[in-house]
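Anyone up for a design puzzle?
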């Protein structure tokens, strides 16, 4: 098991637009017994309510949604490029159907209610502060909303305080 250094989010000095949008991340949570994860390329980090926060979006149909709903904490895990195929698999296959984490050879690290992956390059440990459902009537550009959510299944947004980062 690798040894992570605990740092503040500001100490990472990374381009999170690139990390999230292009290199992807795993959103991971535990229900107290099991751990589930999903690949995401939508989200962000910033400051809100005088706190460093993450913004994560999960569709209610995703298995990970159930885990994030049940937990006060979730993690955002970022990996080197060599993990791209594994991240793609983890985004396509549901943890309801198989133990996809073990199948991809990832090692879950549990720290109380917090779960993340030993193979990650960076981890943001987040505590849920707020959640809200995306609603079609709130789009100011309806054509955009209709394009993104043509089939419905709108995301729930989570705002999480970034408690600390691991690198």
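Challenge accepted. My sequence:
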């Amino acid at each position: 098991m690798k040894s992570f250094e605990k740092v503040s989010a500001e100490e990472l000095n990374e381009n999170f637009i690139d990390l999230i949008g292009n290199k992807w991340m795993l959103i991971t949570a535990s229900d107290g017994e099991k751990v589930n994860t999903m690949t995401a390329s939508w989200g962000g980090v910033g400051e809100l309510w005088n706190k460093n926060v993450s913004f994560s979006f999960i569709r209610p149909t995703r298995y990970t949604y159930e885990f994030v709903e049940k937990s006060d904490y979730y993690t955002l895990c970022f990996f080197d490029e060599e993990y791209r195929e594994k991240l793609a698999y983890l985004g396509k296959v549901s943890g309801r159907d198989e133990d996809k984490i073990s199948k991809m050879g990832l090692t879950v690290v549990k720290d109380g209610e917090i779960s993340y992956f030993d193979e990650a390059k960076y981890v943001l440990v987040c505590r849920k502060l707020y959640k809200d459902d995306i609603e079609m009537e709130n789009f100011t550009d309806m054509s955009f909303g209709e394009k993104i959510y043509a089939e419905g299944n709108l995301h729930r947004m989570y705002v999480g305080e970034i408690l600390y980062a691991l690198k």
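A detail worth pointing out: The mean pLDDT is 96.
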